[in-house]
Design brief:
The protein is of the alpha+beta class and 142 residues long. It has helices at residues 62-79, 97-111; strands at residues 7-8, 23-26, 29-32, 49-51, 57-60, 87-94, 118-123, 133-140. The strands form two sheets. The protein has a six-stranded mixed β-sheet. Strands 4-5 form a two-stranded antiparallel ribbon. Helix 1 (62-79) crosses helix 2 (97-111). The chain is globular. The two termini are 23 Å apart. The mean pLDDT is 94.
């Protein structure tokens, strides 16, 4: 835990998987570290994903991961003194663009009916945990 008042770590989002905070405030801007869909309470459970003992996918529900990642982003925003309507930029990392982009666009539109931040979506080879999506966001704070 940092003693820097501009560094935000909250128990309402999954613990970061490395040595970094959930967010960092610089002036009136808030920079969120990459946030995935892991369950905030357990830190390891991934909504919509069930694996066998060898780590092979038994069940996979990308839409559950989308809803969970938005919930986690909202938790960090609120813990930082910001909110959903103050998002100005969202970078989306998908591990399978062909499979997941259409579903993500549909769900994204449900969450961003008023405020529409800038957005970039890229496909990545993998993420640090067996998740299918991660968001990196910038918001404003008062």
């Amino acid at each position: 835990m940092s003693n820097n008042p501009d560094t935000i770590i909250t128990g309402n989002a999954p613990k970061p998987v490395g040595a970094y905070p959930h967010a960092r405030r610089v002036g009136n801007l808030l920079f969120l570290s990459g946030i995935g869909p892991r369950d905030a309470k357990t830190g390891t459970d991934i909504p919509g994903l069930v694996t066998d003992k060898n780590g092979n996918f038994v069940e996979f529900d990308f839409e559950s991961q989308c809803h969970s990642v938005f919930k986690n982003v909202r938790a960090v925003l609120e813990a930082s003194g910001s909110d959903w309507e103050k998002l100005v930029d969202v970078t989306v990392f998908l591990v399978n663009m062909q499979r997941d982009f259409t579903a993500f666009n549909r769900i994204y539109a449900q969450y961003f009916t008023g405020n529409q931040p800038c957005r970039t979506t890229v496909e990545v080879n993998c993420l640090p945990t067996p998740i299918a999506i991660e968001l990196k966001c910038i918001a404003t704070v008062d």
